[in-house]
Each structure stands twice: as structure tokens, then as C-alpha cells.
Amino acid sequence: MFGKLMATLAVAAIVAGCATTAEVAVPFNAAEVAYINQSGPAKVSGQGFTRLSNGAVITCAGTKAELVPAGQYAKERIAAIYGNVGGGTMSVSQPMPSISAPSEYATMRRTTVCDASGNFEFAGVANGDYYVMTVVQFVRGQGFAPEGNRLVRLVRVADGKSLRVVMN
């Protein structure tokens, strides 16, 4: 038991030492993304999962899914983290760049929880660009290191039309 604890601490120290810092030059503008607080006719639904090399599927079951308005601040932030304004996939074992964010940014989003099949849904969504975010995380067997992926996708709600996004 002590050996596993020491190994876990060693891995955590190595990973923490690899973290980078990134900057977002664009200031956060709450008025630009105020549409997150408006009600619209659309639904944004989807499913988050990861397929393992043996074919097994692990979902985001029980994990938070978020709908974040994709204003200029969020787009620059996501590009700094994922290397692409459209989002992407990042291993949970990869350290996230450290980016300080204004407290108001964290409040301008909607959250839900993925169901047992990894499905999520946001109802009453107004037109606009959004990031859909979730995490698929698991531990194999008697392991101690989490595996899985952070999933982020840029979507556009237009003309009040609902959409479904599959994230893997």
C-alpha cells in the first residue's frame, strides 16, 4: 500500500512539474456572451465517450457536461489549451495549462450531468456559438492513475434548431 502511495505521489509531482502557463490577451466580456442566460427553442444534446483499444466503450456517465458560450475570450482560451479554436480531445493525464480566468467567466455557463449511457441535454438554448465540454475518466483494474479524455467541441445553434454532438 505504501509503495502505491509513493508511486502516486511521484507521478503527481512529475505531472505537476510539466504544467505550462498560457495567457489570454482578449478580456472577458460578459455582455458578448449574455445569450447564455436567454431562453431559446433549441436543445443541445449529445454523448461523451471513449473507445478503448479492446473495443470497450467508457462514457461520461455521472460526470458534469457544460455548455459555455463561445465568445472571443473563450475561443482564445480553448485555442491556448487545445491548440485549436474548435476544441478537441486531451488526455486527463496531460496537465492543463494554467490560465487565470475572471470569476464571472465561470458563472457564464450551464451544467448538467451525463446519464448512465453518457448522454446529456441542454434545453431552452438560445442561438449562438457554444463549447460543449465533458470528461470521460476511469481507472483500470487495480490501477491508481486515472485514464481518459477531456472532450471539448465548438457548436453553433442557429435559427432555433436543435443539434446533437457526439464527443469522443
Provide a concise account of the structure shown:
By secondary structure, the chain is an alpha+beta fold. It has helices spanning 2-17, 72-82, 103-107; strands at residues 39-51, 57-59, 64-69, 87-91, 110-113, 119-125, 128-138, 147-157, 163-167. The protein has a single domain (2-167), classed as Immunoglobulin-like (Sandwich), CATH 2.60.40.
Query: What gap, in angstroms, lies between the N and C termini?
Result: 34 Å
The largest sheet is: 5 strands, antiparallel
Which strand order do you get reading across the main beta sheet?
4-8-7-3-5
Low-confidence stretches: 1-17
CATH homologous superfamily annotation: Immunoglobulins
Which bin fits the share of residues in helices? 10-25%
CATH topology: Immunoglobulin-like
Kindly give the count of domains.
Answer: 1
* Helix-and-strand structural type: alpha+beta
Query: What is the correct CATH architecture?
Result: Sandwich
- The whole-angstrom Rg is 17 Å
Q: Quick check: average pLDDT?
A: 89
Q: Tally of extended strands? A: 9
Shape field: globular
DSSP strand content: 35-45%
Helical stretch count?
Answer: 3
**H-E string:** HEEEHEHEEEEE
Which CATH top level class fits?
Mainly Beta
